[in-house]
Write a structure and sequence with these properties.
single chain; 293 residues; alpha+beta; Alpha-Beta Plaits; Arc Repressor Mutant, subunit A; 2 domains; five-stranded mixed sheet
Length: 293
């Protein structure tokens, strides 16, 4: 009899948890899809849930596998964040949790850095029991900023999944050129962004775009790029240095290389749809040593 009573209580408790999770998920979905000022009903629902829509928000995303019980583990997430000094709203959302913390006024750079350190601490603690990738968004203001910072945190978490060297934790404000990839993934209109990125190179002499593309295709080999273009390797070195200065990038950084490589490929295929189907052209003979142009 006691076992039966406990089983019924557990079932009832689980149903209550699932009902609360659905309520939170629906409210979050309504806020994320909002493209106008929230009405009185949505503001009331947010207030009833204890969510503050005013102020400055910093989004967080913890992505995990489909086998994790996000409903049962939500109290653990909240408890670990609070133990690290982070009061946050935590919502079961897809395969993981979406969360955010709110400041009364715009947080300073030091406050954002402190929050990031605390999040790293919380993330390390959580990964002892659940493999989760964490992303942190930028500070954003008011109800519309909440959706923006949550989106940034989700993008950062997706990238963090493939970044074990940083502990599977990334900040959106530290992604640099990888933001191009995030923008592409979000809008599916990467070509205009790619053209805008490469535009400064087109305005300068030296065939910088083709040099950059060949350099990236060769895996960063000056010799191979020089052979493909029919110029001296010193010329390639000078051109790539000019690319770094003009675009303010570092071609040794893998995020910069990946974003630029995609930009070059996207523009090339858009200008010539058959470019990707062409067989590779034979390498011209290596030129004699000469001065870089």
């Amino acid at each position: 009899m006691a076992a039966g009573a406990i089983q019924r209580w557990l079932l009832s408790h689980r149903l209550d948890l699932e009902r609360d999770a659905r309520s939170r998920g629906t409210l979050l979905g309504d806020l994320l899809q909002l493209n106008r000022d929230p009405g009185s009903d949505l503001r009331r629902r947010a207030a009833d849930a204890g969510w503050v829509l005013t102020g400055w928000h910093v989004g967080m995303r913890l992505g995990t596998g489909p086998d994790v019980d996000t409903i049962a583990r939500r109290p653990d997430i909240t408890r670990v964040l609070e133990a690290s000094g982070i009061p946050a709203v935590v919502v079961e959302h897809g395969n993981g949790w979406t969360a955010w913390t709110t400041y009364d006024s715009e947080p300073t750079a030091d406050e954002v850095d402190l929050l990031a350190r605390r999040l790293r601490e919380a993330h390390r603690a959580l990964r002892r029991t659940v493999e989760a990738d964490m992303g942190m968004g930028r500070p954003r203001a008011h109800w519309d900023g909440l959706a923006t910072t949550i989106g940034e945190a989700a993008d950062a978490a997706r990238l963090a999944a493939a970044r074990p060297e940083v502990g599977h934790f990334l900040r959106a404000d530290r992604l640099g050129m990888a933001q191009l990839l995030l923008e592409w993934a979000r809008t599916e209109t990467f070509e205009p962004t790619a053209r805008k990125l490469l535009a400064p190179l087109r305005e300068l002499p030296g065939d910088l775009v083709n040099t950059l593309s060949a350099y990236l295709d060769s895996g960063g080999s000056l010799a191979e790029t020089a052979a493909v273009l029919g110029v001296h390797r010193n010329t390639v070195a000078a051109r790539t240095e000019r690319v770094e200065r003009v675009l303010d990038v570092t071609l040794k950084d893998r995020d910069d290389r990946l974003a630029l490589h995609l930009a070059c490929r996207t523009v090339a295929l858009a200008d010539d749809p058959h470019a990707g189907a062409r067989p590779p052209r034979p390498l011209p003979p290596r030129p004699e040593a000469g001065k870089a142009d």
